[in-house]
Amino acid sequence: MADESKEPKPVHVPTGDKPASSTPPVSTPSGKPADASAPAAPPKPPAPAAPKPPVVLQTPLDNEFVTRFRAKFGAALLEAMEDRKQAILIVERARLVEIALHLRDDEKFDMLSDLTAVDWPKRDRRFEVVLNVYSFAKNERLRLKVLAADAEEVPSVVGVWPTANWQEREVFDMFGIVFSGHPDLKRILLPDEWQGYPLRKDYDILQQDTAWVRENLGIESGQ
Amino acid sequence: MQSAYIPVLIYAALVMAFPAVTLVLAKFIRPASTSFGAKLKPYECGIPPESDARGRYSVRFFIVAMLFVIFDVETMFLIPWAILYKGWVAAHQGLFALVSMVLFLGILLVGYLWLYKKGALEWA
Amino acid sequence: MLPIGHYLFLSLALFIIGVIGVVTRRNVIVVLMSIELILNAVNINLVAFSRLYGDVAGQVFALFIIADAAAEAAVGLGIIIAFFRNRETVLADEMDLLKW
Amino acid sequence: MLDKILFYFFAGVAVGSAVLMVTRRNVVHSAILLITALLATAGIFLQLRAEFLFIVQIILYVGGIMVLFIFVIMLVNLDVALQQIQFARQKWVALLVALALAGQVGLMFWSSRKMPGQGLPVLTAAAAEHLPANSEEVAKSLFGSYLLPFEIASVLLLVAMIGAVVMAKKRT
Amino acid sequence: MGPQHPSTHGVLRVKLKLDGERVIGSECIIGYLHRGVEKIAENRTYQQFAPYVDRMDYVAAVSSGLGYCEAVEKLLVVEAPPRARVIRTILTELQRIASHLLWLGTHALDIGALTPLFYCFREREEILKIFEKYCGARLTTHAFRIGGLQYEAYDTLEKDVERFCKDFESRIVEYETLLTQNRIWIGRTKGVGILTAADAIAFGVTGPVLRASGVKWDIRKAMPYAAYDQYKFEIPVGTTGDTYDRYLVRMEEMRQSRLICLQAIENIPSGPIMGKVGKVLKPPPGEVYHAIEAPKGEIGYYIVSDGTVQPYRVHIRPPSFINLQAFDRMVRGHLVADVVAIIGTIDIVLGEVDR
Amino acid sequence: MSLEIGTDMNALQATNEFLRLYWAPLLCGVAVVAILPLIAGYIVLVERKIMADMQARLGPMRVGPHGLLQPIADAVKLLIKEDIIPDNADKLVFWLAPVLSVGAALLSLAGLAIGPAFQIAQDINIGILFVVGISAMGIFGIVLGGWASNSHYSLMGALRSSAQLVSYETAAGMALVSALLLTGTLNVKSIVEAQNKEGIWFVLLAPVAFFTYLVASIAETNRAPFDLPEAESELVAGYMTEFSGFRWSLYFLAEYTNMIVVASVATTLFLGGWLRPFARVPWLSFLDFAPPVLIMAIAAYCVLRVPKQPTRVQQLFMLAVAGLCFVTALVLAVPVVLPIIKPSVREAVAPFYAGIHGGFWFIFKVSVYIYLFMWLRFTLPRYRFDQLMRLGWHFLIPLSIINVLLVGVALIVGAYFHLQGWGLLLVTTPAAILALVAAFFILAVEKGHDARPDQTATSDFYVG
Predict the structure, then answer these.
(1) Do residues F255 and F197 share a domain?
(2) Whether residues F354 and F208 fall in one domain
(3) Residue F49 lies in a domain
(4) In chain E, what residues touch B47 (CB-CB under 8 Å)?
(5) With contacts defined as CB-CB under 8 Å, which chain B residues touch F409?
(6) Contact assignment for A97 to F464 by CB distance below 8 Å
(7) What is the pLDDT of residues F80-97, one digit of tens each?
(8) Which ipTM did the prediction report?
(9) Which residues of B10-35 are buried (b: 16+ CB within 10 A; e: fewer)?
(10) Residue pLDDT, tens place only, E197-216
(11) Residue E189's domain spans which residues?
């Protein structure tokens, strides 16, 4: 799934608040060699970006990789798109672990760089869990997303990428998303007894667990 | 009592009295302690101690101390031997003295090697 | 040197205190310490007589006794450690098994 | 005179701390008191001009054996032991034993006072005036007349070493 | 152990499960320094948030700032002009040296060597002076702006950097004389806290820790940013992934950073220092994940824009946080004393772990 | 000795007698107790200054010129500092422990002879054993202090510290035995005299023993690289964690006194005590002038520095220091210069010469030894506890035992060939080389033993 091979093709884009657009993406400069098999090999420098003022940068994506993926998982792939030259797959929540295993073992996305979540309260599935995975063999990233409603659990990928452990805990800590199958799901940054999930959009920046603060710190407010 | 030890005794009284007296005197000099609460708790990196510190520790400490005692006894036997050794050597009995000590040390060395084999001297 | 009786009495006192300690205390460590006291009482006698007769044999004996005390303490305390590990106690009356 | 003062001082300290030692509940305090008693005994040795034994007492007994004791006290959980009753039931037996012992020795003294010349001769003997009690003398005696016991002592130490390690090591 | 402990480099609490002196399990309790940086981001404009990222890894603020600026630039689809990129590279590499120096000093101190700390601070001071001359701040520099630089390089920047680089060569040798061949140092670090390559990747570990495990991966090479594609440098890798290897890798990295600086000052292109960004930044809707090679590893910014002046969501992938996860793996089977060496070798900054 | 005191007259006489007999040791005792804390304070200052110099900084500069009054300020601060006793500490033992520590350290000084004239325990038969034995009792201060605090770190630190002490005490004892083989006496003065008679310091005759003692003494004083008990990165402050203020400073005093003690023991046994280097080589007797010249140089330096002092007080202070040095130099110079001017006084001056110059050389050697300690501290990282134990039990102890036997053999061979003095080197050097071979052999065995099994398990983390 090299960037160059991506061929923008209009696919239905039911993404919620972002309006879908058919504007072609920024001209794709040959950022990386097609097969950066050795991660050590210094890829060619990216040419300076074309000074074209882009308006909307999210385009549906359908390249060879997506086709392969679709063939294997079919309906589990809800959506494939590209945003600023980055492939994004939105997949079905229930089959996340299976897909993750496939990505790790067959597509060689062996490192999970980052796992986080975004809260879109107005959508019917408000949480978007975002996984940024990286392949040493291909020297490229892939973004994987699953959607979850308020009470829905997301399968944990700790078994696939152990590094997800703390990151999932952090997401649980901040968003209250429960990861089923996580070995030790508890708060990580906030105190264990803290009430509320601060990174949800309905949690005000000045809000705090006043009861906890009073009880444990002996002060009225941490502000 | 040998007369040489009288100054030692007086000196001993002096040195034991010195820290004790200064400790008491310092009490009058320094401001009264107003500490309370956490300041009087043992240092536990900021977390309340989870258990009494006088718990149990590795048995290796015992083994080390025990070996020390044994070797200390050995040293205590070696020292009288050492101070006589020159005389024996001068009287051409050095070899006998040496052999008797080699015998003594040899038996203990057997124990040492056994411990070494057993790994009793390993800390980890 | 004072008359030998002084030393004998001192030695006796320590010996008896040691015996009382051995018999009454439940904590085996204290029992062992009391035994050390008894050995010590013996040493006082030996040294006192050594002084009395001007013969260092008594002191040599005391030296051996101290070496012996070291060996005894090492093994005795080793037993206590082993016992404690198995039974979580250092009390004498609970040491009622020859084998565990 | 000075001799007397020193003797009574050391003897008093020894007996006092010995008594306290067997009566303290806290084992560490007991150990400290025993150290005091041993140091006082070392003082008695010094007063008896047994210099070498004085330092052996300090190095081996106080600095060696007592360290071992203190280590063991710290290794075994003290608090459990503290909560339990420290004195065994045989209190009366102990008293009896002690009394019997004291009585026996007292009788001995008493009888020896009664019948001078037939009791303990040592009570009337004068202390030897020549002073053999220095390290070299002890050493000469140790490696002269007592060479065999000295060699055997090493076997004793060997056995103690092995025994203690076998006892203390974890059985696996 | 912790949270107030001399060797945890901040407020980290480590619960250790011990078998005698041997560690059989551990749990890091973090969050004592949590400030909700990500929440703050959602309530600030893009420019306003930039200084906040300096407070995460406060000993390598320049690198964090660079990552953030580049991420937003990527989101805006603009690029900083070449001159700005070269200066960014110089400062970032100096920052890498400074960060590694601080690491070396504290790590050596943890292992009991007092003196390297002072030597390291002596050199770090020079770097901080350069920062101060450049932007007025030493620690939380806020050196870069989205789209380029705010300040033109001061006149003697090149000379200062050159002088530093010249001195620094012999200084590294000085540290190495004290440590590299030292028997005690080797005894304390060799074979301690081994992390295999497979484990390192599984734990998502990046930076020198990953490279010490033998994975030759450096974002500067793999996905070049700033001006790294113009310079020649090597990526040092270790073989066994133990503490000693991590030490060697970082030492070599300092040498390489020095080389990069020397190459960079040779030819700083002239031109503008600010790209074409408006006064008010309103990135088009969308999202971006941009990562750079910070001294401690991959620092990634995942920024979601909803088209307004404030980011909709900023997520930061802090290298310390992720690397600390591997601590448990490294520490198992070691002695308590090794824990200190291992915490030191990961090179964490709690401000970044907790955010 | 028995003094029978009958009447007042007798009592007075006895007192007189007593004072006449013991004035020197008593004075020594009072002096030691009075100035030792000061000396320890200044050792700390010197250490900080040396450390600062090695670390490219200045060190204490604020209190007094070049920080010369820093120790006094520190002492005052510590004296008036708040005294904290943790709640659940054993108060009595907490009180007793530092006193024990300091007491043992100070008491052991009694056996040392600082020059032929200054010794508290004059000519006691057990001499060096007294020093070693008493200072070994300091261990109780440590272990009881750690226990009394009732804190994990303290107790752990105390246990470690004492385990370390006892481990290295054996090695030190064996090194001692090696030296005693050469001296044949325990008496401190006789030991130095023996070195004078042989004309060679025992460090040359028993280098391996000296090395063993050096390492063991560093470990025994808890100095880097063996400062495990105070490994702040692991155990915070070891057994001293809970001690603060004056109690803490008592421990500190004990530690520095112990340094002086081990340095003095090493000086006495191996470095020729108060003897001038090459004391028996006549043509090197110009070395007698070295002490006054050295001190004079320091005085001159101080005078030179006076104009650089910023304030008047500091200038005066500097001048005072210079004056002190000058007086000391004069005192040192008198016994060597006077006989040259007036040869007839040689006999009369001899005891002064021996005492004063002996004291100087002794203190000089002790200082060098302590400087070595400091140097090592600033250079080396710290051992891990198991490595430290292994070094002690697997390396030093067998080495020192082997060395004892080798020295014994060497002496027999030496007697067979009637070797004396420097000639003994002919037999002791091969013995030392043999011991070194043994050392390398042990190290090689250790290395094979050391190959630890690979610590990392296979990746059990790919569970999925």
Answers:
(1) yes
(2) no
(3) no
(4) 2-3, 13
(5) 98
(6) yes
(7) 777 777 777 778 888 888
(8) 0.79
(9) bbbebbbebbbebbeebeeebeeeee
(10) 888 888 888 888 888 888 88
(11) 32-275+304-354
